[in-house]
Amino acid sequence: MAVTQEMKERIAAFARELAAEMGDVDDSHALSWLDAVETQAVEIGDAISTELLEQRAAKLPRCDNEATCPKCGKLGRYKGQRERELIGRRGSATISETEYFCPCCRKAFFPGDPNDRR
């Protein structure tokens, strides 16, 4: 998805708010002023990335009380919701997802994740 002009304007306004809140740049422990500003920007970007991931994961559809094991094809038992930490390019985020247990394979699986390869 491309960043629209409207998004760019909202990002610019948000950046101005954050800059005012953070105050002057402290580059006393950085390689340079630019390094200090980039470090702040990376921290903000990581926080936004984590928040977006968690919000989008919360909207994923919940599975029913029955699901088929991706390894053996037999019916798995519903175990409930489980929090799982995902590690992405911008850091980690915790999501909640439906967990099942296959008594034949004796492994947990997550049908909401099509790439689950446990």
Q: Topology, please?
A:
Elements: H1 5-22, H2 33-58, E1 66-68, E2 75-88, E3 91-102, E4 107-109
Antiparallel strand pairs: 1-2, 2-3, 3-4
Walk me through this protein's architecture.
The model has no long low-confidence stretch (mean pLDDT 86). A hairpin with a 2-residue loop joins strand 2 (75-88) and strand 3 (91-102). This protein is of the alpha+beta class and 118 residues long. The two termini are 30 Å apart. The protein folds into two domains: 1-60, no CATH class; 61-118. It contains two helices and four strands.
Stretches where pLDDT falls below 50 for ≥5 residues?
none
The rounded Rg comes to 21 Å
Largest β-sheet summary: 4 strands, antiparallel
How much helix, percentage-wise, in residues?
25-40%
Order of helices and strands: HHEEEE
Oligomer: single chain
Can you count the beta strands?
Answer: 4
Q: Output the strand order for the largest sheet.
A: 1-2-3-4
Which structural class should the secondary elements be placed in?
A: alpha+beta
Q: What share of the residues does DSSP label as strand, in percent?
A: 25-35%
Shape: elongated
Number of self-contained structural domains: 2
